[in-house]
Amino acid sequence: MSIARRNRADKRQLGQFLTPNRLSRKIVDYARPKITDLILEPSFGSGSFIESILDHFHDKNVSYKNAAKMIAGVEIDTALYQQALHTFHAKYGLSAKDFAELSCDDYFRWGSDQATLLHPEKYFAKNLEKYDLVIGNPPFGGTFDKQIEDQLDRIYGFRLGEKIKKETYAFFIIKSIDLLKDLGRLVFICSDTFLTINTMKGLRKVLMDTGSVRIRSLKEFSDETSHPMVIIDYQKGPVASTVYVDNDEISVADIKQTPNYSWKINSELLKYFNGKLCGEYVVATSGMTVGKNEYFIKKIGNNNTIEERYKYELFQDPITLTKELQKARLGKLSEKRKQEIQLLESKGVTTTNVKVSLKAKPTTVQLPNKNYKYYNKGQTKRLYANPKYVIYWKDAGKAVYLFKYNGPWYLHGVGGKKYFEKEGITWQLVANKLYVRYLPSGYILDSGSPAAFLRQGIKKDELYFILGWLATDIATDILKKVINHTRNIQGKDVERMPYPTWVSATDKKRAIAIVKNAVANLMSGQNTDTDLTVAKLNSLFRQS
Ligand SMILES: C[S@@+](CC[C@H](N)C(=O)[O-])C[C@H]1O[C@@H](n2cnc3c(N)ncnc32)[C@H](O)[C@@H]1O
Questions:
Q1: Residue 187 burial class via C-beta count within 10 angstroms: exposed 0-12, middle 13-18, buried 19 and up
Q2: Domains of the chain (ranges plus CATH)?
C-alpha cells in the first residue's frame, strides 16, 4: 500500500462510518437476539449497536445489567471507545465491567497473542467457537496494522480453496465466522459491491458452503456515505441450497455456474452461462499509469498536431536509502537490502533518471511523429473511435519507464506492457455499459481503458466476433448484473463473460461481417449508425 493511501485521514483509514441509532435498532430488532445469546460487536465505534441491543432487551423487560453481561465488544479507536463508555454510563448506568467484555483493541489482535499471529497453525488449533451472534458494521476499505498485515493474510486470506481478499470487512467476516458457535449468526452491514465482485468470490463461497445466507439491501444508510449497502444475515451450520437476496431465492447451483459465484444471477441470464468463457479466446489486461499524465500524455488538436510544453533530459541520480524507502512497499525494506543500498550510497553509485521541465516556448508537433505513439484512453464510443491522445514515446518509451521506475510510489512497473502496440479490443474502465471498440495495432495502453487480445492460435475473426458480442445490450446486461455490478469493468470481467457458443455458424459469419464493415467504415470516417449496427447484433446474439 502506498504512503499516500496510508496517510489518508484516520477516519477513512479505520472505515469509520458510524451507524445511526435508528438504523442499528432496526437491525437488532430484525436479528431478534435471545437473552441467552452471547453477543459480539467487533468494531463498536461509539456504541450504536450495543446501545440498540440494550434498548432491545430493555423493551423485553430485561435489565440493562443482565443484558450487558451477554455483550462483548471491541473497538480500535481510543476516542470512540471512551465516548461509548461514557454513553453506556450516562444512558444506562453501566460501566465496562458490567459487560461480558469491552476491549479497546485491534479486532485482529484481540484474543491472539504474538505467537498466534506469527504461527497461523496455532490460530487454527484453537477452539474459537464461542458466540451466538456477531453483529455490527465492520470497517469497509480500512487499513490493516502494517506490522501484522502479512501474518493476517496467512490466517484469514485463504479458505475452502479460495483466496479471501485482504480487505478489512472480508477479514472481519472470516474472523467473526470463526468465532461463531454452530447455528450462531452473523448480521453485518456491508457494501453491496460484495454481491458480485470477483475479489469477494472466496468470501461468498465460505458463506454459502458453511451455512445459510440472506441479503437485504439497505436503501438508506446514513448521510455520511451514499454508497449502496446491504445487510448480510448468515447462520453457521446446515448448508442451504439457496441464497436469498431481498425477495429473490437464488439457487446455489446456479450461482456456482457463474465464474464469479454471482449473487445476482437470474434465470433469464443463467442460460448464457453454458461453460465457455471469452477468456478462452482472449486475454485481457489493464493499461499503465504514468505517474503524472501532464508530462507525457498530449491531446491531439486541430490538424493532427500537438503542443509540446516539456523537454526530457536523462541524468545520473545518486542512489540513497531515503529515496529507496519512499519507494518501498509499506515503506519497509529488509535489513539486508538496506545495507546493500547504504553501501551503494556510500560509494556514490548512481542510476539513470529523467528530468522533465518546461520548455522556454512550447513547440507544435505534426503527427505522425516517431517520438509519439497513440495513447488509448477510455472513450464512450462503441465499435471504433479515433485516437484523442498521444504519449511521448521516444526511444521506445524510455523517459516514461524511467519516470515510473524512479517515482516515490511502490508500484514501479508498467501495466499491460507486454500488449503495447498490439491489435485487440478495448473498452472504457469506468462506465455503466460496455463501450467496447476495436483497437488497431500501435497504441500504448492507459489504465482507464483495459484491452483484450486474441490468445495464440485463435483466428483473427474471433476478435470481431467477440467485439460484436460485447457491444450488444445483452452483454452489458450480463456484465453489469451478473459479473460485476460496480462501476468498473476490469479486464478479468471481460474474460469471465460467456462466449456465445449458442450463435449458429451462419449468424456468426453475419456478425463478423457486420462488425468488420462497421469498423472499416468508422475508421475511414464514413457516417455510420452505430446504434443501428448494435441493434442488428442484438438480434443475432440474443438467445431465445
Ligand atoms: C463502519 S464503523 C462502524 C462502527 C460501529 N460498529 C457502528 O456501527 O456505528 C467501523 C468501526 O471499526 C473500527 N475499526 C477499524 N478497524 C478496526 C480494527 N482492526 N479493530 C477494531 N475496530 C476497528 C473503526 O474505528 C470504526 O469505529
A1: buried
A2: 3-265 (3.40.50.150), 293-541 (no CATH)
Our CA dihedral for 75, 76, 77, 82, rounded to 10 degrees, sits at 40
Q: Which of 14, 146, 173, 188 to mutate to test the pocket of ligand 1 (most atoms within 8 A of CB)?
A: 14
Task: Read off the pTM.
Answer: 0.83
Say how far apart CA 426 and CA 378 lie, in whole Å. Answer: 8
- The position carrying cell 465466522 is 177
Listed in sequence order, the residues at least 6 apart from 370 whose beta carbon sits closer than 8 Å to its beta carbon are: 394
For ligand 1, residues with CB inside 6 Å are 14-19, 24, 43-45, 48-49, 74-77, 80, 106-108, 136-137, 139, 142
- Candidate of 11, 76, 188 to mutate for ligand 1, largest count of ligand atoms within 8 Å of Cβ: 76
Cα-to-centroid distance, 539 and ligand 1 (Å):
50
Ligand 1 center from residue 50 Cα (angstroms): 13
Residue of the CA atom closest to atom 16 of ligand 1: 14
Eight-state DSSP code of residue 298: E
pLDDT in tens, the chain (544 residues): 334 444 445 565 666 788 999 999 999 999 999 999 999 999 999 999 999 999 999 999 999 999 999 999 999 999 999 999 999 999 999 999 999 999 999 999 999 888 888 888 999 988 899 999 999 999 998 899 999 999 999 999 999 999 999 999 999 999 999 999 999 999 999 989 899 999 999 999 999 999 999 999 887 555 555 678 999 999 999 999 999 999 899 999 999 999 999 999 998 899 999 879 999 999 999 999 999 999 999 999 989 999 999 999 999 999 999 888 887 777 788 899 999 999 999 999 999 999 999 999 999 999 999 999 999 999 999 999 999 999 999 999 999 999 998 887 767 778 899 999 999 999 999 999 999 999 999 999 999 999 999 999 999 999 999 999 999 999 999 999 999 999 999 999 999 999 999 999 999 999 999 999 999 999 999 988 999 999 999 999 999 8
Preceding omega of 368 cis (within 30 degrees of 0): yes
Judged on CB neighbours under 10 Å (0-12, 13-18, 19+), 478 is: buried
Alpha carbon of 80 to ligand 1 centroid (Å): 9
Q: Which atom of ligand 1 is nearest to the CA of 18?
A: 9
State the distance from the centre of ligand 1 to the C-alpha of 66, rounded, in angstroms.
25
CA angle 189, 190, 195 (to 5 degrees): 135
- From 46, 75, 143, the mutation candidate for ligand 1 (largest count of ligand atoms within 8 A of CB) is 75
